[in-house]
Amino acid sequence: MKILYGVAECFPFVKTGGLGDVAGAFTGTLSKRHKVYMVLPGYSRIDRKKFGFKKLKSPEFNIPIGNSEIKGYVEHTKINDNLEIYLISNSHYFDREHLFGNGTEPYPDNAERFLFFSRGILELASHLKGLDVIHLNDWHTAIGMFYLKEFYRKVGKIKPETKSVFTIHNLGYQGIFWHHDMYLLNVDWKYFNPEGLEFYNHINYMKSGILYSDIVTTVSPTYAKEIQTPEFGFGLDGVLRKRSKDLYGILNGVDYSIWHPWKDKFIPFKYNKKLFSRKVKNKLEIQKELGLNINPDKPLLVMISRLIDQKGIDIITPVFDMLVSLGTQIVILGTGDKKYIDFFNWKEHQFKGTVVGYMAFNEEMAHKLYAAGDIYLMPSKYEPCGLSQMYAMKYGTVPVVRNTGGLKDTVIDIEDGFDRATGFKFDYYSPYAFYEAVRKAVALYKTNRDEFNKLALNGMDTKFSWEKTVKKYLELYRK
Ligand code: ADP
Asked: 325 Cβ partners below 8 Å, 6+ apart?
């Protein structure tokens, strides 16, 4: 098959978070047997030299944006016969320090930037022969689904046989812009109604992706159900219910060539199930490195996360001191909201030798912490799929998670028996419910290490492979 995959970021070219990892690993696996054209915005921070990008003579195109015709061009490189990378380039839109905003605020012209990108993808698609599927991702590309169905197919620029798949990675970010931006789109106002692009008197790009694509997917089966309810739908639950027969939840995978304690190049002591007893050496190393009291028997709680409400930080802070009182050590690695950064810095100061607030983005430290921890904390308010809990399990670090989205689908609770269990789950989004789950985990660690280790070893057996994910996507593509 021939698949065009449009996305706003992709490892190793450019990455700010989970979406970049997922895009890189998914297309890497898919292209083992199928032809993949990956399309990214031509951000200036993508290293043209390192990856061998060359500017193409054609296609060059003009995208009508408001009253102007904006010139775009394409850069290209080939990873192998099955995987080609294209950049949709325009220096005004993409020659900036960041991808989406200046760190605190989104760029004010994001409606325009990602409209340009989305239509650029379709201009390129109309030059690629024999495409079977156009697969677009999240709000940054979503408006492309509208143009594909209402324009490119209708005027014959893209054949009706080329089908479309739209994936929601996180419904919390929708690309909502004020109604004046309708004029940028150059389309009739008839589309600005609740059955179309309008969303509470604004334009909503994500909504157009959901409404106008042939098939909609999201990144776990539970999240696919949850987003059809008002609690998780961010106002789009009605639209999603309307499309429920075309909506599928397919779990992401893990790249175990990078995330495996036996192969991990960052961790001081490699281990696997047989050599599980070596794991604790990683804890002793990190205690030394971070200035924690050195003690192999202190349960080490770790968390590696964006510090935002979605990740449940607001239910951690009220019980944080109680978690320390359980006789634990806690390391939080993260970046995000200032109020949380201040909080964890203060806790580090207050509980010197017991708590570390490592307030930075640090890939190496992340690897070391997955290896060093005993218990992994992930009390998310909502979690489309989540990678961290899957990494933690592979490293034998027992997750405590809220029973939602991808966490529900990937972690097996202790109540389901020691033969299968991989972690501890709680239901209610409250500090006390979270505290209770951690208390149970710490109690087991302290009173029955063999049983605790059984959970860790079960976790190390988990296999969330990309092969499985890709197989399911291929079934949908064929459909
Ligand atoms: P999301 O994509 O919502 O942020 P995921 O759990 O799917 O959450 O993926 C987060 C990824 O980012 C994980 O690989 C995690 O290890 C990594 N990560 C998050 N914060 C940091 C940080 N401060 N330093 C290093 N890695 C981080």
From this structure: none
The residue behind tokens 């594909």 is 148
> Which protein residue has the closest C-alpha to ligand 1 atom 24?
361
Among protein residues, the one whose CA lies closest to atom 20 of ligand 1 = 305
Q: Write down the CATH number for the domain with range 2-253+467-478.
A: 3.40.50.2000
Distance, in Å, from the CA atom of 133 to the CA atom of 440, rounded to the nearest integer, reads: 48
Statement: the pTM of the whole predicted model exceeds 0.85: yes
Secondary structure element (H or E) that encloses residue 83, with its range: strand 83-89
How confident is the model at residue 362, as a pLDDT? 93
Domains in the chain: boundaries: 2-253+467-478, 276-461
Q: What number does CATH give the domain 276-461?
A: 3.40.50.2000
| pLDDT per position as a tens digit, 160-216 | 999 999 999 999 999 999 999 999 999 999 999 999 999 999 999 999 999 999 999
Euclidean distance between CA atoms 349 and 40, whole angstroms: 43
Question: Does residue 196's CB lie within 6 angstroms of at least one atom of ligand 1?
Answer: no
Going by pLDDT thresholds of 50, 70 and 90, the confidence category of residue 102 is confident
